[in-house]
């Protein structure tokens, strides 16, 4: 007996009863929270879960800090792959966790995998946003009077 394949329809049917705020936009399931936006995609055998920060970074130093967190020496310690997603006005943190599913999965297994992947991505983005805010605050406190954290004249 083979287990059912993993499809976006199946994932949606598992998530929606527990969370009515999940919405489908084409080939993406999306859910917005106050501190993170989570997305689920399913491409062939790859289940891709991502989290995006709702905070758009416009300050060059904040963007530099975000890039350092995403690609710096400590980036390899993250469970989720992190990057800075470009927006019209700046950038924002994104974390992605992909899983290859070579065989079917029971509903319980799939839901457990989804929840764990969502937790990993959401916590990664939230932690990165908090770290960027801490660095910005440190810069602001260290800035001489009359200048902003970015170094511009106030």
Structure description:
The chain is an alpha+beta fold and 154 residues long. The chain has one domain (8-142): Yope Regulator, Chain: A. It has three helices and six strands; from the N terminus they run αββββαββα. The chain is elongated, with a radius of gyration of 18 Å. The protein starts with 7 loop residues before the first helix and ends in a 12-residue tail after the last helix. The relative contact order is 0.17.
Largest sheet: 6 strands, antiparallel
Instruction: Provide the domain count.
Output: 1
Cα distance spanning the termini: 69 Å
**Largest sheet: spatial strand order:** 1-2-3-4-6-5
Low-pLDDT segments: 150-154
The CATH architecture can be given as 2-Layer Sandwich
| Cα radius of gyration in angstroms | 18 Å
Taken in chain order, the helices and strands follow as: HEEEEHEEH
Number of strands: 6
Count, helices = 3
How do you describe this structure in short?
This protein is an alpha+beta fold and 154 residues long. It has helices spanning 8-15, 60-71, 107-142, and strands at residues 23-25, 28-32, 37-43, 46-52, 81-86, 91-100.
